[in-house]
Amino acid sequence: MGFLKVSSPHAHGPMSTARVMRLVLLATIPGLFSLTWFFGFGTLVNVLWASITALAFEALALKLRKRPIAFYLNDYSALVTAFLLGIALPPGSPFWLIMIGTGFAILICKQLYGGMGYNPFNPAMAAYVMLLISFPVQMTTWLAPQGSFAGDLLGPIDALRYCFGFGRESIDAITMATPLDVLKQNNSLLIEDLWQESAQLGHFAGIGWEWANIGFLLGGLYLLYRRVFTWHAPISMLASLTLLSVLFYDGGSSASGGSPLFHLLSGGTMLGAFFIVTDPVTSAVSNRGRLIYGALIGILVYIIRVWGNYPDAVAFSVLLMNFAAPFIDHYTQPRTYGHKLKDQQGGKS
Amino acid sequence: MRKIWDIHGGIHPAENKHQSLLKPIENAGIPAQLILPLAQHIGAPASPIVNVGERVLKGQMIAEAKGFVSAPVHAPTSGTIAAIESRVIPHPSGMSANCIVIDTDGKDEWIDHHGVEDYSALSKLDLVDRIRQAGIAGMGGAGFPAAVKLSTRDDKPIETLILNGTECEPYITADDILMRERAAEIIAGAEILRHIIKPNKETLIGVEDNKPEGIAALKKAAEGTGIEIVVFPTKYPSGGEKQLIQILTGKEVPSGGLPSDVGIVCQNIGTATAIYRAIQFGEPLISRITTVTGEACGQAQNYEVLLGTPVQYLLDKSGFDKENCIRLIMGGPMMGYTLQDTAVPVVKTSNCILAPTVAELPPPPPAQACIRCGMCAEACPVSLLPQQMYWFSRAQEHEKLENHQLFDCIECGACSYVCPSNITLVQYYRASKAEIRQAQQDKIKAERSKERFEARTARLEQEEAEKEAKRAARMAAAKAKAAAAANAPEASKADIIQAALERSKAKKAEPADPAQAAIARAQAKRDGGAEEESPQEKTERLQKLLASAEKRLVAAKEKLALAQEQQSDNADAFATAVSKTEEKLSAIQKELSEHQASQAPAKTEPAGESTDPAQAAIARALAKRAGAGADESAEDKTTRLQNVVATTEKRLAAAQQKLALAQEQNDANVGAFATGVEKTQAKLDAVKKELADHQATLGENAAAEQATSDDPVQAAIERAKAAREAQANMSEADKIKQTLESLENRIAKSKEKLEAARAAGDDKAEILADSLAKLEDKLATAQQQLSQT
Amino acid sequence: MIELIAQNPFLASLLALVGLGLVFGALLGFAAVKFKTEGDPIADQIESLLPQTQCGQCGYPGCRPYAQAIADGDDINKCPPGGEATIAALADLLGVEAKPLDAAEEAVPSVAFIREAECIGCTKCIQACPVDAILGSAKHMHTVIASECTGCDLCVEPCPVDCIEMRPIETSLQTWHWEKPKPVEDLIASDRSGATA
Ligand code: SF4
Ligand code: SF4
Ligand code: SF4
Ligand code: SF4
């Protein structure tokens, strides 16, 4: 007879995992573009080198685990990790730093747990945190944005050279504290004065940073439009962050935590909200769960930024909440059709 | 506009409905053969009421409903019954089930049938019964007998009657075209339903907004009837009964409940037309509208198809291109199931036959890992968490699956449809549901087995205890007797036996329960046999065993004889003990001889004169007991044998009495007694033979004869023998007659039992019915035999 | 005294530790008494997981004795009718490693069937059946109540004319169901068939 015997449904929607990942990659373009515009080609080189090493590590791991390599490389998940890590690292990072990062992300955080879908922690963020703790110097030297200093931006050739360790001295000349650092170190000036003082603070949240964040916001909105993820986690994260910064804005005194806009558009806020917090594998599963998950990340980000030891906190907060995700899931099972919420909760152990 | 509620989730797959809407409904005609499965509905299969070779008319009932949730089957056209046999039916398993096969004659001759002049004059019960007799089962896909749904109880008033014209599955247009062409019939059916159900609020027909022509036709037909056509946005799966109810009324059917629990009755519009035809014209459900579509069909179209029409026939009509078609689906692309065989028939629930090309519905790509993207949860109309259930299903975590409401999943397939990793989620859920159900059943069965086992153990223990008590009593009696008889010279022998018996008692106390023995055997099997022992050792061991068993047997027999003499009531206990010991003995004997045979053929004992090894063993035991056989004087032997004959005869008589008594009282142990009598008889014969042989050698034959013939017991035996001989000499016919009688008796008894079981609602009733049927079969054959002789 | 302790940090910390130990010990002890679980004795729980086939293949005369034996420390992998599923459940309950089944193969679920024409009505099978699943009386044909039969196999051997056979339970339309898909993501490089997409 030769007819297939398969279980329904027979039709399948247009979405595939690879397509989801490709869309995510596509959505990073505006952010990448503004990063490059303001900080030079360093980030692009990061991303490029991270992608190469990530794919190599992934292939290696698959070979060791005796899995079909082409089948798994085709899901683009390693590339997404590489892109996110490359963007998060300071532009023009040395090649070994990036390589350690991707190696840790792919080999330890992903494949060791069983590959895509099985990792409890977001690999890019876990690698970022690992690097931050191990190599604090390299991880906190950020380039100065265009317009805040006299020299030229990092060109593509220079960026490559720096990355692979040639003439790194000159790069140190154009580093500068990030806006979050500036705010953190401030302890006497009113916010208004601080802005006057520091050239790199720009209009709201730092030259370049504002635009990079807006770029990632745009990419995120595109993904939302394509229904790659739901609005719950990113919006609730941004909302809780805004809420806290409004509460502690304090009219711009010297003890102020910074304006809401500053927090929304500075550091890794938008990248985190739309590209990290939405990482499906490691977040909560139900929409209610995602609201809670996102909100808690927002709160943690603010707390660590303002009262913690590190200037930015997206990576830490996400990792912390990765721990809590299964717990959140347990308590946020949605109400099923035909059940009363109470019964359902009561039915659980 | 009335308020429309929204359901959670849902998807918008490509509709592909226009292809089959280009042409009007066409009558598919009469194929040469119709195959009508007996189970075209949910519930018990119908049972055939026609015979092979019988001519049937169109609309004639050929199988009747069995039970409340069931539906009869009617002949869709005139013809002859070609077979009632197992045929492949439309079912995802591709398995077969009982079908009635009709060879059509092309005359399409109707049976006499009448509609109802004025249905409003009839009672609800009457109308529902007509619908039941018409064999109408839900035509939307599930096939729930319509009459069952309509049998609402008065204590659950119905507010809303809903007709489902949603047809949310892609490709299918059977309901759409029905609305376009037969809107009036739908509305007429709705009126009848309204009359039956008497909804105290409203009657609604729900239709998705992608069927504007159908909606217009319905609206026109419904003018002035008060039936409201509710149009709502297209979204799969809004046509699911529970989903439709939520969309139209905002109510949710409680989990595990029925729509009537929230005051709603829901029927498909196809069912409504069928009901209309059944009431108005008296036509049973014999045809339906089926969409034949998919790109592998040259011409997609809706057909009015006689039930039982093979799918192949419809495909042929539609220019089916088999090369291009990789799967054949009955139903839609979301919930339909694949067919393996084009010979399967169209049944009451077959709304669509979908023959897609490879490009249209490509084979599923390999599944990737779940990335927990949550798209499935977004799409699920029941607000489940499919991704979680998927993990639990893979990990066999049944409890968690149930906590995640797996059983509320309607298997709509929306989750699988959206899953970017191509995971066949629904298949996991189906498998897990089946596994859980199986586990529950196993659990129940284990529970029951345990109960039965415990009950049995308790019973055995009790029996054992009773035996023990009797044994004690008997021992006391025997002791007293022994003391009384101490002076008598012959008593010494009895004493010795008594002592031997007591010695062996401890050993005998181990119950010879066959179950125990079997367990021991199973254990032995598992252990891969006992530790190795040398052949020598084994022979010795077996011989020892044999000797002790023989001793025990003799002792037990004496004891039995004694007990019988005294008319003691534990004689039967001894009888069983004896027979058990004999069994054991023969087993050991066999093992030993086998062992010896395998060891050294030369050592093999010459095949004994007696074919019964136990008998031989007894003989040997007797010999042993009397000391070395050779030393025994001829005189002694004669006396001894005579003694044995006498006691055995007595025993036999006692056993026969017992048997007679048991038979009179219809005792359950009759069988055991009968065996006992038989065995004793055999033994007696053997001993007698021995005696005779012995006496022959001594030339004292006549004296022995003399000694036995005036024994009254002997007379009884003689009589029994005569009876047996008479039976043996009975003519064949007589024998059969006797069997007949006994069979009839048994049937009568079984019937009584069956009745009692039925009355008690016992679940054994079916088993009894089965065995009754078997007995009746036997009776029939016996009768046949009798008539032949 | 107090002064001595205050002066001597070593002594102080030692005392603090001991004190803490006492307090927590008391707390734990109290909790153990107060929140004592009144669950089934462990043997009962084990027994409820055994298939109750009563076949004795575990080496014990029935499931209950085996349950008791497990509770007393016997291996959990001796029940062929239960198979891997039972072992897994037991391992779960007892918090021990699941082991492979200690038998050649898992028993296929089956029921006994008596070829009735050959049955001589000796009642031996009835005596052997641990769950009284055989109906019949002496000299009359016997039959197995299939729904009660646990498939334990014990009635086969005692039959003197070998008219009892074990028939595997067949899938019927009612019991048929979809199998779980074989997860492709676990596929390895050697079986590429499905993975070339
Ligand atoms: S849609 Fe598929 S991949 Fe996404 S969460 Fe559901 S099962 Fe997992
Ligand atoms: S098949 Fe079940 S789990 Fe999947 S979407 Fe439908 S109802 Fe939800
Ligand atoms: S092997 Fe299993 S089913 Fe058989 S008696 Fe032992 S525990 Fe019970
Ligand atoms: S009928 Fe046979 S196989 Fe079935 S439970 Fe009884 S003894 Fe075991």
TrEMBL record, chain A:
The EC number of this protein is 7.-.-.-
InterPro entries recorded for this chain?
Answer: NqrB/RnfD, RnfD_bac
Record key words, sorted:
Cell inner membrane, Cell membrane, Electron transport, Flavoprotein, FMN, Membrane, Phosphoprotein, Translocase, Transmembrane, Transmembrane helix, Transport
Quote the cellular component terms of the Gene Ontology held in the record: plasma membrane
Q: Which cofactor does it need?
A: FMN
Q: Name one GO biological process term.
A: transmembrane transport
Name the Pfam families for this protein: NQR2_RnfD_RnfE
Q: Top-level EC class, please?
A: translocase
Which residue ranges traverse the bilayer?
A: 44-62, 69-89, 95-113, 125-144, 204-224, 231-249, 261-278, 290-307
Function according to Swiss-Prot or TrEMBL: Part of a membrane-bound complex that couples electron transfer with translocation of ions across the membrane.
What interactions and quaternary structure are annotated? The complex is composed of six subunits: RnfA, RnfB, RnfC, RnfD, RnfE and RnfG.
The family note in this entry says:
Belongs to the NqrB/RnfD family.
What name does UniProt use for this protein?
Answer: Ion-translocating oxidoreductase complex subunit D
Q: Give the encoding gene's name.
A: rnfD
Automatic annotation (TrEMBL), chain B:
- Its primary localisation, in coarse terms, equals membrane
Basic and acidic residues compositional bias, start-end: 524-542
> Which keywords belong to this entry?
4Fe-4S, Cell inner membrane, Cell membrane, Coiled coil, Electron transport, Iron, Iron-sulfur, Membrane, Metal-binding, Repeat, Translocase, Transport
For the biological process aspect of GO, one term held by this record is:
electron transport chain
Kindly give the membrane topology term recorded for this protein: Peripheral membrane protein
Annotated 4Fe-4S ferredoxin-type domain residues: 361-390, 399-429
**InterPro entries assigned to the protein according to its UniProt record, in alphabetical order:** 4Fe4S_Fe-S-bd, 4Fe4S_Fe_S_CS, Ion_transpt_RnfC/RsxC, Nuo51_FMN-bd, Nuo51_FMN-bd_sf, RnfC_N
What Enzyme Commission number(s) appear in the record? 7.-.-.-
Q: Which residues bind [4Fe-4S] cluster 2?
A: C380, C409, C412, C415
Task: List residues binding [4Fe-4S] cluster 1.
Answer: C370, C373, C376, C419
Q: Which GO terms describe its cellular component?
A: plasma membrane
- Write out the annotated subcellular location: Cell inner membrane
State the needed cofactors, names only: [4Fe-4S] cluster
Query: GO terms for molecular function, please?
Result: 4 iron, 4 sulfur cluster binding; electron transfer activity; metal ion binding
Residue ranges under compositional bias (Low complexity)? 512-522
Quick check: keyword Translocase in the entry?
A: yes
Q: Where is this region: Disordered?
A: 505-542, 589-613, 697-735
Q: What does this protein do?
A: Part of a membrane-bound complex that couples electron transfer with translocation of ions across the membrane.
Query: Family per UniProt?
Result: Belongs to the 4Fe4S bacterial-type ferredoxin family. RnfC subfamily.
Complexes and interactors: The complex is composed of six subunits: RnfA, RnfB, RnfC, RnfD, RnfE and RnfG.
This protein is called Ion-translocating oxidoreductase complex subunit C
Q: What lineage, starting at the top, does this entry show?
A: Bacteria, Pseudomonadati, Pseudomonadota, Gammaproteobacteria, Cellvibrionales
From TrEMBL, chain C:
Identify the residues that bind [4Fe-4S] cluster 3: C129, C149, C152, C155
Keyword check for GTP-binding: no
Q: Where does [4Fe-4S] cluster 1 bind?
A: C55, C58, C63, C79
Positions bound to [4Fe-4S] cluster 2: C119, C122, C125, C159
Its cofactor is: [4Fe-4S] cluster
Location relative to the cell: Cell inner membrane
MF-aspect GO terms: 4 iron, 4 sulfur cluster binding; electron transfer activity; metal ion binding
InterPro entries for this protein:
4Fe-4S_dom, 4Fe4S_Fe-S-bd, 4Fe4S_Fe_S_CS, Elect_transpt_cplx_RnfB/RsxB, RnfB/RsxB_Proteobac, RnfB_subfamily
NCBIfam families the record matches:
PRK05113.1, rnfB
Its name, as the record gives it, is: Ion-translocating oxidoreductase complex subunit B
Domain 4Fe-4S stretches: 38-96
Name a Pfam family for this protein.
Answer: Fer4_21
Q: What does this protein do?
A: Part of a membrane-bound complex that couples electron transfer with translocation of ions across the membrane.
Can you quote a single GO CC term? plasma membrane
What are the EC numbers? 7.-.-.-
Q: Per its UniProt record, what SUPFAM superfamilies does this chain match?
A: 4Fe-4S ferredoxins
Q: Does the keyword Translocase apply?
A: yes
Region of interest (Hydrophobic), ranges: 1-32
One GO term of the biological process aspect = electron transport chain
Main site of residence? membrane
The record's listing under Gene3D superfamilies reads: 3.30.70.20, Electron transport complex subunit B, putative Fe-S cluster (1.10.15.40)
